[in-house]
Amino acid sequence: MVTTLDATVDQGLSIQTRSVGHWFDTKDGRLDVLEDVTLDVAPGEFVALLGPSGCGKSTLLRLIAGLDAPRTGKVGADKVRIVAPHPSRLLVFQDPTLYPWRTVRQNVALGLEATGQVKDSQERIDRALDLVGLRDFATALPNELSGGMAQRAALARVLVNNPRLLLLDEPLGKLDSLTRMTLQAELVRLWQDARFTTLLVTHDVEEALLLAERIIIFSPRPARIVREIRVDASYPRHRDAPELQALRREILVSLGHDHEL
Amino acid sequence: MNSIAQTDRFASLGGIRGNGPAFALAAPWKGGLAAAGAWSLTAVLTWAWPDLTPWPRTELLALLETGIALLLAGGALLGGPRLSVIYPYDRWFGALAAILALWQVLTAKTGLLPLPFFPPPQSILEVYTDDAARLFESVWRSLVLLIPGYVIGGALGFVTGASIGWSKAANYWGHPVLRFVGPLPATAWLPIAFFFFPGSHSASTFLVGLATFFPVAVLTASGVKGVNSAYYDIARTLGGSERFLILKVAVPAALPNVFVGLFMGLGSSFAVLIIAEMMGVKAGLGWYLQWAQGWAAYANLYGALIVMALLFSGLISLLFHVRDRVLAWQKGIVRW
After folding, report:
1. Which of B233, B239, B248 lies closest to A67 in CB terms?
2. Residues of A with CB below 8 A from B327's CB?
3. Other C-beta atoms within 10 Å of B30: how many?
4. pLDDT, tens digit (0-9, with 9 covering 90-100), for A73-119
């Protein structure tokens, strides 16, 4: 079983945001989604961005990916301003968004193809498929895969490029609970082995507690940082651990759900 | 006993051979035998029932019908699993024999349907035996007009549509033109085309191209515009250049639409082709139809229509075959 892609793995990126604000112009006027977001993420850190659905967390990921530019404030990686997408900062969406006309293997090869390295990287693609347990499905088409397998393929598609920052936008949100638990464990293993920085957007408190070293809690839209919580428990974590249960209550109160206690 | 009956049943359904000397034991294709019987009956009718006024190709027709009956019987008894693709069509084979018989009864045998408007099948057979050279020439001339125009129009339509779908500037200038000029049927351009082009051949190629161009351009453009924007986000973060985004994302994602455009374009190019041949080119199947009408040669007219149906249906089948190969990843597509 292969566990990492390369013997020498680049260190994770550090991320800085400074007073980031963002809004969309809609026909009903300006829709504010981010407000004064200042955040530092250390290299190799696993940080969860937790907040109500639709609050603007995903927009923050798009800004860090370089797909959109912030209206106000600055976003940087390793203290260099982000102005465009780069293969060192890769996104995984809630939907796997595999290209349906490509096989699993061709989907995984996408980034290497885009940067002209695909010819020398066949072994690398095999290892990425091994890493997510899809070697036997290399020639399958996306519509032949289950939801969990498709999301694994989407993970392999980014991991094969050796990203220094992984931006996960509720990647397990649409999976059934058993598949989700398996993939949560795999995410932790991949992160521990490869040492990339990870930003996980989620609205699942338990998922944030199981995976992240630090949890940033956002307000409803426009998203502002309400609170930060450090999770010191060692991995692999267990969802019933009392210390996590205590943090869970604390987080729910911060999210305004104290009535559920 | 029971198990043998079951084996026979499966053999006749899916063409599975039993153990041992399989061919002898395999159950025959019963529907095929029934169809062979129907064709034999039709052959007997053609042969034994004298024509009202003798047609020169009645014997040949009876011979052909016998041949088809023998082929069906042979296939039913010896074909085995190799012929299983045609097994479901046994009722069609039978029905064709019945239609041919009825047609002869109504025309050659009793004259219930008047000549020259309702020629018997033997006179259409005569067209194929005696006028084959002219028909082949017409098919060839039609293809020579159709295919270059279709290929050029399809290619230009694809490039135009992809540009309009991709680039804001191309969309700004191109889309209104497509909206304004596109609904004009290509046949409306006929007088102008025949005036501007040096010959009727190049004018017709232009018209066929035009008829193909618009549906391909419109559907390619809407296909490219409709690509899931997350596909582009993925490619951009992975380091894809604009060229990569167009060739590896926009075009493959839009291909299902492109094929719909090619299908529509092929249909309208047939219409234009036939009219152009009738109006100006004086060659091809369209011209053959008009020539036959001029001589009140209705058998030739029907004969050419059958050839045309085979040709055009074959071309559309070819296009769908190509599409099924190219879009094998797609499921639930329209079947032809």
Report:
1. B233
2. 101
3. 12
4. 999 998 889 989 999 999 998 889 999 999 999 999 999 999 888 88
Q: Give CA separation, B264 vs A99, A114, B162, B271, B319, in Å.
A: 26, 34, 17, 11, 11
Structure token pair of residue A106: 């061709």
* A157 vs B contacts (CB less than 8 Å): 234, 238
- With contacts defined as CB-CB under 8 Å, which chain B residues touch A86? 237, 239
Calculate mean pLDDT across residues B323-331. 83
Does residue A50 contact residue A218 with C-beta atoms inside 8 Å?
Answer: yes
CB contact under 8 A, A87 and B238: yes
Q: Which of A90, A99, A141 sits opposite B237 (nearest CB)?
A: A90
Bridge partners, A216 (sequence order): A49, A228
Contacts A161 to B, Cβ<8 Å: 238-239
- Mean pLDDT over B58-75 rounds to 94
Segments of chain A assigned E as strands: 15-26, 29-41, 46-50, 72-77, 80-81, 89-92, 165-169, 197-202, 214-218, 225-230
pTM as predicted? 0.81
Cis peptide before A85 (omega within 30 of 0): no
- Say whether residue B332 is in contact with chain A using an 8 A CB cutoff: no
Residue of B227, B229, B238 best to disrupt the A interface, most CBs of A under 10 A: B238
- Closest by Cβ to B238, choosing from A101, A102, A161: A161
Residue type, B33: L
* pLDDT per position as a tens digit, A147-163: 889 999 999 999 898 89
Strand A29-41 with A15-26, pairing: antiparallel
Pairing of strands A214-218, A225-230: antiparallel
The ipTM assigned to this model is: 0.87
Q: Are B239 and A86 an interchain contact pair (Cβ–Cβ within 8 Å)?
A: yes
Q: B329 to chain A: which residues are within 8 Å by CB?
A: 100-102, 141, 143
Q: Render pLDDT for A227-257 as a digit per residue (tens, 0 to 9).
A: 898 988 888 888 888 888 888 888 888 887 7
Side-chain half-sphere CA neighbours of B41 within 13 A: 16
CA–CA distance, B150 with B147 (Å, rounded to integer):
5
